[in-house]
Structure formats: structure tokens, C-alpha cells
Amino acid sequence: MRVGLPRPKSEMVFPGALMQQRILAMPHVTFPRPRSIPSVWSLLVNTASGLVCIGAAITLLGWIQSRDTLAQIASGHGPMRWTTALSILLLGLAMLLKRNPETGGAAVTIADILTLLAVTLAGISMIEYVTGPLPLYEQWNMANIASARPGSIPGRMSVGTILGVTMLSVCLFALDRVPKLCTALLSFGIMLALAAVCGFLYKARQLAGGRILDAMSVQTAISLLALYSAAFASRPLREPMLSLFAPELGAEARMELLIGTWALPILIGLMVKLGYQREWYEVPFALGLFAVAVVSLQTFLIWRSDFALTRLTRNKQKLEEVLRKNEKLAVAGRLAASISHEINNPLEAISNLLFLIRTSDGLEEQHRYADMATEELRRVSQITTQTLSFYRESTRPELAEIVPILESSVQLLRGKIKSLGLQVVEEYTEPIPQLVCSPGELRQVVVNLISNALDATPRDGRIVVRASRSRSWTRAGTNVVRIAIADSGSGMPPEVLARVFEPFYTTKEKTGNGLGLWVAADLVEKQGGWMKVRSITYGRHKGTTFAIVLPLIEAGSDFSTP
């Protein structure tokens, strides 16, 4: 019987390598963040700002022509002052000019000038509260409207209006300059305008400004509320708009949230007020009824949010488990590619030895060749046993020795190490006591880190695998075992180092899936440890070092596997 030579490496196909090819052939998963504003938001901004500008222009025309029907849009609640109408018109035009974050050049400059004019009018009104009517400014005041409050100054804004106009002007000026300040002022401004609107709905004049400092008109409150909301809608890629209207939230949950937190409390208050006006119950009962209704509504919303969050968490856990299994298959594929080198050498030697046995004449010489072939077969058996142990080892925590795990991890990659012409130095500082870990998962992490180091290290480079007992002062002096894998590669720049543990982030576009380090960090954390990374991209000591830190069992403590 003729013994053939082993198949060339190009023809050898291993199941693990085939699985790795399938996994790496999967589409590269990314989570792109939208960069352009959806058309619905631009439509809302244009509609709200346009209606506010039209209303302010009609009111301003009523003051110019002394026509009460034009100046007083909301009958019975007093007109918007002409200075307020002019300021609202200026701010509405500025909002239209700044409706898109990509707007620049002359449009932004004109918008800034309009906001400056609006805040100037508000400042003049505030000065009038301190010094009285200004002589020059009083000449600009237009004729009184019949519906204006007797004794009030037609050109002077109310204090609430001054505050609302000033904050909105600052917000529009800082819209793309100081986003955090803008968000804070917009939130406070919406609450101010909403308080004034509720004051008119519930006839609580104190919320709309009171009599002493002159009341804000209902048209002013609604206009400010619309412009503040339009400013939020013009930047939907910022918080809180990004979270409130995220696609993951779903249309149903979003509507429940908005209606439950905004519309329903106001409607409940109106219903309670209606019952009190019709003398169905007294004030204490009305307040208690309102409190019970609002608390019940908020409890329902919290339950719905908690239910949705729990469901998302479970789905996330299932997805992470699938990703871990895929990464383990990918690691097995990389190991199979490396082990193929290691198995091919003894198979070639066995083939040659069998040929020598067949052609040899002496029995003693044949026995010597047979012993050599048996030794080569023992090497093949050892390699396959180590490979199978990668999957057969239990993932349950147990007391284990660290050094054998590290030595076997290096041995699994010995073929790839030789083919790349690299030097791997193992430094184990004795004594290293046993610790509680999952040997299979820890070997997976170490093999992954060494494989990454092999990819990053140039030919004739050096990789150090080090383990020692130490103490972690950042964790209250806990006794730990530190496992370090250091390479002499080119290192990682800061922007890569900051994202190295993110899922689906990889610098190896053709051969990487971006899951290795994320899964490794997760497995180490599951065993009570943590990972650290340090990288230098310049100088004689450039390279990257990954450290695995695992806590030790205290002396005398009981241990039992779960």
C-alpha cells in the first residue's frame, strides 16, 4: 500500500477555519448616526416660526393702525404690547434663519443682529421699570389700544415677557456656540411659557405675571412656547430630542410619553377645575382628586417604561450571548489556521519515516524509524487534544493554576509564532497561587490577546507573556494576579485606544470583526477581574501592553463551585 504525502496547505480545509471565514464574511456592523435633519423637523420649525411671525405682524399692524381687533387676537385677555410683538417678530425671523445647523455666513449674521435688537427692546423695558418711562422712548410709543389696561405703558413689556424674550435671544445666539447653555435656557424658558399658558387656562393670574408687574398676554405666552419648542426641534440630534425621539423608542411609547407628561396633566387639571366651578366638590377634595389622578398617571407611565426597559435589557443580553459564541468560533478558526502549520510538520515527517521503513533492510533500523513515527503521532495527538480542550473545558468557576493555562495558550499558537519569525518570552514570577476562574474562558482571552499581539508585531519582534502576584491599591489593597501580554509593535494612537473595547470597532477591516477585545473584557469582568491597556507610539519602548487583573481567594475562605 502506497502512503501518499499530506495534502498541500492550500488544499487543507479545517471546520474552524471555514467557520471563521463565514463569520468574517458577515457584513461589517456599524451604527451610523444621522447627520442631516429629517424633513419633518424642518417642517415643524418652519410652521411654528412662520405662524408666530404672522401673529406678531398682525398685532403690530393693529398697534400701528390703532385697530383693537387686530392687536387683540385673544379676546378678553388684553393685547400683546407693540414692543413685545416686534421682539417676537424679530426672534421668529431669526429662528427661521437658524433652522438648520448647516446654515452659515450672512444668514447667521443677520439672525444674530435680529436677536440683538430683540434683547435691546427687552432691556429698554426693564430700564423703564426702574427709571419710569423714557422721554425719547415714550415718543416712539404708538397710540393706546382700547383693550390695553388703563395706566399701563403701551411700549413696556411685562417682567415675565422680558425674561422670556431675553432667554430666547441668548438661546438663539448660543444655539451652535454653547449647546449646553442653550439646552438649559430652552428648558427653563419652556417651563416659564407653559406656566403662563396654564395661568390663563386656570385663571391663575399669578402664573401669568400678576397685577403688580403687569401680566403677560396669552398670545405672548403661546408665541414664546412655540419659539422655544421650535428651537429644540431645530436641533433634533441633541439631547433631550435625541433620546425622546430615538427610533429605538417606538412611535407608541413616544406618544404615550409625550401625551402622558404634557397633555393629560393639563386636561386633568381642567376637569377638576370644571367640577369645582360647578360646585360638585370643595377645594380640598379637588386638590386631592387632582393629586390622585396625576400620581396614577405617572405610575402607569413608569410601569410602561420599566416594562419596555426590561424587554430591551433581555434582548440585549441574548444578543451579547450570541456575539460571545460567534467570537469563540472565530477564535477557534484562527487557532485552526495556526494549528494546521503545527500538524503539517509531523505529518510530513511521518510520511518520510514510513517511506524509510518500507525501503530499509535492517529490522533494528525499521524499529528506530517506527519509534520516531510514533513520537510524531504523539505530537499530533497532543496538538489535537489541546485544541479540543478549548471547547470541552467547563465555563464554571473553579480553583485553577494560572501558569499551565498561559503555557498551553502559547503552545496553541506556536506554529503561527514560528511562521512569523517572532520571539515569545514567558516570564512567570513564582509563587503564583491558585485562583478562582474559568480556565476555558481565561484561555480564550489569553489566546485572543496573544493573537492580536502577533498581528501587531513586525518580523523579528518580541512578545512578552508575564504573570505575577501583586496588590491592587485601587481596589482597597486586594491581592491579585496580573497577567500581561506586551508586544513591540507600533502602538495605538489615542483615538484608537479610547475605543479599543467597543463592540464592532476594528482597525483590521478585512480580517477583524471588532468583537475580540469586547468579549475578552466581558469574560474577565464576569470572573471578578478587569482589564487595562497601555500603548506607546514613539520612542524605543513603543508597543502595547494588555493587563488582566484577577482577584485571589483570601486564605482560609471557603470555596465551592456553583
Automatic annotation (TrEMBL):
One of its GO terms (molecular function) is ATP binding. Keywords: ATP-binding, Kinase, Membrane, Nucleotide-binding, Phosphoprotein, Transferase, Transmembrane, Transmembrane helix, Two-component regulatory system. Residues 338-554 form the Histidine kinase domain. It holds the Pfam family HATPase_c. InterPro entries: HATPase_C_sf (IPR036890), HATPase_dom (IPR003594), His_kinase_dom (IPR005467), HisK_dim/P_dom (IPR003661), HisK_dim/P_sf (IPR036097), Sig_transdc_His_kin-like_C (IPR004358). It comes from the Bacteria. Its EC number is 2.7.13.3. Signal peptide: none annotated. It catalyses: ATP + protein L-histidine = ADP + protein N-phospho-L-histidine. The keyword rRNA-binding does not apply. The chain crosses the membrane at residues 43-64, 79-97, 104-127, 182-204, 216-234, 255-272, 284-303. This is histidine kinase. It comes from Granulicella sibirica.
